[in-house]
Specification:
The complex is a heterodimer. By secondary structure, chain A is of the alpha+beta class. Chain A is built from three helices and twelve strands, in the order H-E-E-E-E-E-H-E-E-E-E-E-E-H-E. Chain A has a ten-stranded antiparallel sheet, covered by helices on one side. In chain B, the strands form two sheets. Chain B has a two-stranded antiparallel ribbon. Chain B has a two-stranded antiparallel ribbon with strand order 4-5. Chain B is mainly α. In chain B, helix 5 packs antiparallel against helix 9, helix 6 runs antiparallel to helix 11 and helix 10 crosses helix 11. The longest helix of chain B has about 35 residues. The chains are: A alpha+beta, B mainly alpha.
Amino acid sequence: MRCLFVLAGVLLFIHKTQAQSAESLIQKVKAKFEKIHNYEADATLKTNVSFIKAPIANVKIFYKKPDQLKIINKNGISFIPKGSVNINFGGVLINNSDYDVIDAGKDSTGLHVVKLLPKEDTADIVLSTLYIDERNLLIKKSKTTTRENGTYELGMTYGKYSEYGLPDKIVFSFNTKEYKLPKGVTFDYDEGSKKNEERLRIKKGRVEITYTNYIINKG
Amino acid sequence: MVRLLKIELYKIFKRPRTYIAFAVITVIILLVQIALKFGGEEYVDLMMTGAKETFDIPVHQILNGYLVCFIILNLLLIHVPILVALIAGDVVAGEANMGTLRLLVSKPVSRFQLLWVKFLASSVYTIALLIWVAVFALCLSILLFGTNQLVVARKDEYDIISTSDVLWRYGAAFIFAGLGLITVAALAFMFSVFADNSVGPIVATVCVIIIFTILTQLQIPFYDETIKPYLFTTHMLGWKGFFYVRGEEGVTIEGSIEHFSQIIKSALILVGYTAVFLAIAVWYFNKKNILS
């Protein structure tokens, strides 16, 4: 019986320390983001969605603390996925007092997995899972499930702006809704070709943002 | 030959009714441009229904001169053949009706030459009409709405075409549309040779276009496989093919055309139809006993 109590105590202690370690890890990552009040970045945006063919766009990305993010394509047209504000984790982390932090251990690549659960029942984000490189304090990957717009996945690679936690490249994956258009508004004609039905069944989209330079805290 | 052509062109362009087509086109284009200037964003919003659940859509950027011109061409190029028929259907039958055809064939010009010049004059009128459409639909829309990339909403996808990649497509589309309209002119011209007054050929051409267009638009598998591929009205829509681009991993390939071979096939079919209509017209006119 005494052994059981000891074991339960040890497990409780381990859980508590892990939670604290996840919390402190998040705090350290957050500290990096807190250095950024705003930034302006030049980037290229590549969309890969089954029902869109678009040229690679040159865009400007504006961020303002805590969670304002705008992607602007002045010389062309870019369809920006809803929820793309989540490409910046600054907002999420800065408000992390609104989240419960759960330590989920390490994944097979050695990244620390931390889950953020919103305390508020009505929050749009239902769950965020962050895969953090502990040594460099960088979020390498994340999965965010939202109430309105499905699940988003982010993959990030870092370069010279890693000290601010800003990536050089982001791959943003998201769920797409079914493509349907009222017949009267399409500009179709029967050109005699077979449609690629298989392609249209793909309900996942991808946006790749490659940053060319950042201007940090100058605005 | 050139002198004969000048005379025929003079005959066409001195008649006030020639300009009805130009006036009608101008009014239609202006009406569409005004409507889109004031309510275009709602139209674009409807056009983007397929993507707006997943994406934030820059509606004001999508509504630009290139898109407005594309919308106008989609509306207009179905109806311009009727306006072409008004002139091409009259070109020979009108002379017969006025009693001048007999006089014309008594001149030292072969019947083939006479017909050829009259058809050329009808074609010049058709091209002039098309240039008018191009100037008003494209240039005025660019002036009113500016330029940006062109978004083409298709049944199964959106094609976004770079600004630098749009103008040549319009050039090619207008040339192709010219080919289609010349086919209509040839049809009206052929009917014109058969008749002695211009109402018959004009009405006959319009009827053929209406029936063929209905068959082209019908989505009935039986017609899709049997009749539709052979109708010239099906192939007249081939100009749209210049705005269907190829892509690789979702990225538009600049300068590409998705089904270029289909466009060539459609163009050849239109040329074939034109040749057949003209051959029938020449054959009939050569053996025709001209009494009026």
